[in-house]
Amino acid sequence: MKTLLKSVLPHGKTFQLIxxxxxxxxxxxxxxxxxxxxxxxxxxxxxxxxxxxxxxxxIALAMLTGGINLSVVAAGNLSATLIGFYLLKYVSQTAxxxxxxxxxxxxxxxxxxxxxxxxxxxxxxxxxLKIPPILATLGSQNVFNGICMVLTGGTGVYGQFPASFTxxxxxxxxxxxPFPMFLFIIALVVFxxxxxxxxxxxxxxxxxxxxxxxxxxxxxxxxxxxxxxxxSTLIGxxxxxxxxxxxxxxxxxxxxxxxxxALLVSNLxxxxxxxxxxLNILLSMFAIQMVDSGFNYLRINSYVRAATYGIxxxxxxxxxxxxxxxxxxxxxxxxxxxANAAN
Length: 343
What we know:
Blueprint: H1 2-8, H2 13-31, H3 39-64, H4 72-90, H5 97-128, H6 133-152, E1 157-158, H7 163-170, E2 172-173, E3 177-178, H8 179-197, H9 199-209, H10 211-216, H11 221-247, E4 249-250, H12 258-268, H13 280-297, H14 302-342
Antiparallel strand pairs: 1-4, 2-3
Helix pairs in contact: 2-13, 3-8, 3-11, 3-12, 3-13, 4-5, 4-6, 4-11, 5-6, 5-11, 7-11, 8-9, 9-11, 12-13, 12-14
């Protein structure tokens, strides 16, 4: 129980992220006092945050192994495309939730199958063939995008879906909580338990910290990496359902900026080889979403925002590297002083 509380209660990186969120909120609440600090704005952020949040969670799992998965958004778009075709063909626009439920379950099965197949491809390339993750998943990303283009002729899938289905992406529960945000928080908690409270999570973090040590500790590195990439891609594919439900469209190039945002969020959350608390993704995601919302109110164009994400990503990487170097120097200095004192 004490160990669980220690991992959940704020500490270190979590306190930094809380401080960053407070500063960002105060800045935009001062610049746009009439619109930014409102319930409607934060409700809107909840809808937008969820999609990127799920893709961030998918990429973060791969980053815990010291790798990366650039194909999660493409897997989501492929899933959304196939499910879109299926629902438009078999489900009436006026269908009730009871009528939609069986088709929704089939849609989930389709997404799971796509996630497993695409994940197995990524896992095979990275874990078995030892191809660098960035190259392997960049290649699979283009394969998934290419399949979407062939299926849709490059135009995408458009249509009217039943309100009982679109509720998944645009519904509100408890009077003010966006349903996608509710799903994201549940997923975050589930994967917190998987990563921080299960043998697979321990193996994943051990491999990410030092794959040689994990190998000599008896961990099956190949199996661990393979499973992680399957889980990562599976999250991306399931997110395709959310994308389709919220936008009522599916395109091969949807969310092209999500990968950059997900990388930024993961770095801000302190997710890296074997390190980082999955729950910090929520705080990091919220900070980035507040920046995006504030920029919208200030009418800063999308090109400037894209450049800002890149700058913030580079800054977060440099900052994390500098902090790590400082701590290493401090540890070396402490060890040297201890050795001198012993002599």
